[in-house]
């Protein structure tokens, strides 16, 4: 195997272990607390709610870790996440640029017709 293949496989294994650790912490810790609360009649409702949120968002955290720790994914996905500092909505920019292109193309075609002495149709 080439060195780049070995490097990529090592990166994938590290990413896999990190994701496994995230799943383990964010699912097993709330489960252990649930078993404790069941047997010892715990009244820590705020902690129980926060641990429930950990279980609910473990997939999101794992996906973020996958993007951060896997270089090919990071290079492809991060440019899509970055926001540009536009002052107007992007859909209006597209409308304005296309309408100005239409006007400029109609001016050019009008000039071409005049230079070729062709009557407008």
TrEMBL record:
Transmembrane segments: 12-41, 47-69
Keywords: Membrane, Transmembrane, Transmembrane helix
Region (Disordered): 85-121
Pfam families from the UniProt entry: 7TM_GPCR_Srh
Protein name listed in UniProt: Serpentine Receptor, class H
Polar residues bias spans: 85-95
